[in-house]
Records
---
Amino acid sequence: MDNFDDIESAKSHHHLMKRPPVDIEFSDLTYSVPHGPNGSKIILRSVSGLFRSGELTAILGPSGAGKSTLINVLAGYRCGDARGSIMVNSKPRDMKSFRKMCRYIMQEDLLQPSLTVMESMKISTDLKLGHTITDDIKLETIESILEMLRLTKAKNTLMENLSGGERKRLSIALELVNNPPVIFLDEPTTGLDDLSSTQCVSLLKELAHGGRTIICSIHTPSARIFAMFSHIYIVAEGQCMFSGVGQDMVPYLSSIGLNCPKHFNPADFMIEVCSREYGDFSEKMSSSVDNGKCLRWHKDNSETRKPIVRRASQYDTVSKHHYDFSSSGWSQFKVLLRRMAIQHKRNIAYLLFKFFMYTFIGFVVGGMFFQFGNDGSRTLYNYGFMFITIIVFMYTPLMPVLLKFPHEVQLLKREYFNRWYGLNAYFCALTCSQLPAQLILSSVYIVITYFLTNQPLEWDRMLKFYVICVMVSLSSESLAYALSSQLNVTNSVFLGPCLACPMMLLSSFGLGYKEEEIPALIRLGMSLSYLRYGVEGLVMSVYGNGRARLDCPKSEDYCDLRDPSALFDTVGMSEVSYGKSLTLLCLMFIAFKVTSYAMLRWRLSTNPSLLLKLGFVGRFIKAHFNIPR
Ligand SMILES: Nc1ncnc2c1ncn2[C@@H]1O[C@H](COP(=O)(O)OP(=O)(O)OP(=O)(O)O)[C@@H](O)[C@H]1O
């Protein structure tokens, strides 16, 4: 088969270099999830097992048996309510160092959109190999991995145009770049045809031969694929039904009175047994392998006929390896910024659409308040223009983030978990990547409306107006990140505008009231609405700083608000200054930014959900408000 030749030719390369052994042993592992307001559902029931380096382990079992959960818990992706012990090289798993050496390829192929295969491989190598390795070596590594995974022909294809098999292989390729010693794969062959599945598993086998610990869950493998695994671990109903070498599965089943028919795929037979097609053998099977503790069927040392036991000195070499980030935070930031810039460039149609939308809204609003800026009889209408401008700068950056970011978080979770980069670098790159478009689009709207509505053409007033609009839009964007980093799309899109409504109302509250007439609670709400500081800032930039009395058209007998101070009294802003409003707006922006960072860190954390620690209230929120973790 071509692929075997490819693998042979690639053996000498960096990504297939031998790795020191990492053995994973778990015992009495129990995992439950909250179920209903008070209850919990046990998914893993005191299972034990040993997954050794140099072995390709398959976790098999009927659908819903707990395979993905076992992988999630072992990889540390979900720790939730897990109890029991997980040992790595005979020492309790230290999540911090374990995460540095393990990679997790999830069932869904979460790949960054709008990048070609080559671009994503380059970004992956730049992030993972850092700048200590020359570009030539990186390119060589990429070329050989792509060749090995038969992706060379697709290297200039955009991710979204790849076939299911190619996407799966690319997910593996991206993680192979820095030669991880432990790889978890959740159903790597799902969606692949027979040939692609065989090639994928033979690649994993080759990687395992290089000393890696490769653990994957798999659905009903063909007899050929089944024979490729060095270790089979069967799970059903959250318990271990068998753990050992594939060839021993038929004798094992015979030993408990279940004879696999000739010419029957042992994996299929085992799944049928676990699905109770031949009666209930679950307890018998699970107790005969001591729920995974029994090593009788494991690959043994041919001389001693005992399971292979490693020497402590072999494990020591692992700690000498450095699996830390190869690139500095600054390099990660630059690479991520480059990636986001490419994605923006590829999405130029979306940017153009936004440009036209801002232009269109600019003309609509400018037309509605045409020439009101210096008209003493229309001062309140002009105040309305400023209020609407703030609403525009609240909604336009809010909605796209609420719609897009919940999906982006999934990608972020995968890359962050697999230690492509740190959160600080990502967060800074995300903030900076949005800024140029934000500044340009804000200018488009402001230039159109400012001139159409005939606001004072003084540089300092225009600049002040611009700064307030940009700060409101950046605050709205940060608020949207804070919400959408915790919620799914449906809830984000619902909650965002719901929160915006009271803030909008509070921003213009006070019209016609004296400050002491406003109830204390509403005054508190007003002081928490960043939109209010936005409206105040715009009013002060246009009317503050000693603006002269406005023109009063001849058609009017009397213009009661032609004096700016009369407007300040009417809208309850006589005590307001531009500097104070801008400072408070900036503080609100910082508060939103810090909140969105903290929310994101919380979302990426593998610790038990904070909500679960809150007891009943937390469980209720989690169960009924679709909080994804
Ligand atoms: N958060 C959760 N809340 C409630 N039940 C859950 C949760 N996560 C998993 N389960 C349940 O736990 C069981 C095991 O799920 P898991 O995804 O591990 O199964 P699996 O063996 O990987 O299945 P499949 O092969 O179909 O992917 C299933 O019955 C599933 O419904």
Note: Residues 379-417 form the longest helix (39 residues).
---
Amino acid sequence: MPPRKLAAGNWKMNGTLASLAEVDALTRDCGTAGVEILICPPATLMRPMADCIGRGIIAVAVGGQDCHAKESGAHTGDISAEQLRDAGASYVIVGHSERRADHGETDEDVAAKAVAAHRAGIASVICLGETEAQRDANETLDVIARQLAGSVPDCATAANTVIAYEPVWAIGTGRTPTNDQIAEVHAAMREALVARFADGAGFRLLYGGSVKPANAAEIFAIAHVDGALVGGASLKAADFAPIVKALDAA
Ligand SMILES: O=C(CO)COP(=O)(O)O
């Protein structure tokens, strides 16, 4: 089993070969034990990043940002989980709200992608989160319960699945839920996982949405927060390294 704590960076559609210097700087700055670091670059950077990390002094996992449910075939522009693994990935993010919104992905689609990841032997990071309208309507816990039931496949285990709670309204906005709101959702996710899976207590639960060096420590102090899925602040080592260190200290 990898360390329980996981600091994951989602680079989204950002980064070129020159950005690998940030990964190099991160590995030099974060010689910490006890925290697993994952970076999910755009597909174009996966193999060069995996090679660059292989020469580094600490282990950093590389992940994809999405995969197709099928292993191969006539699906122009898509990438299979097997291809991600071949390019050096050991994780893949599925069900990110940007993909749910931009590509109309349903819970059923997300579950199929998670199954594909597990078929390929890589772990899935399954994203859940309410919109601002749903939070305002007091529907957050219902939405999370529904997404968790629908997006997490029956073959999920603590070893092959990470769950990320990312409120849509907190992504890239600089706004975050209160600590109590994060605690409430993470406790509900844990309860649902324990009720459904024999090893539900072991699934790692990440918080994502405007995590920065300034708020990382207080978020990591919340019960059932095992790490973060970081967007903007994962692009620069100067921002991501303090978040990794805050998680290590938590
Ligand atoms: O969407 C996110 C990570 O997947 C969060 O993005 P930000 O950290 O930029 O808010």
Note: The chain has one domain: 5-249.
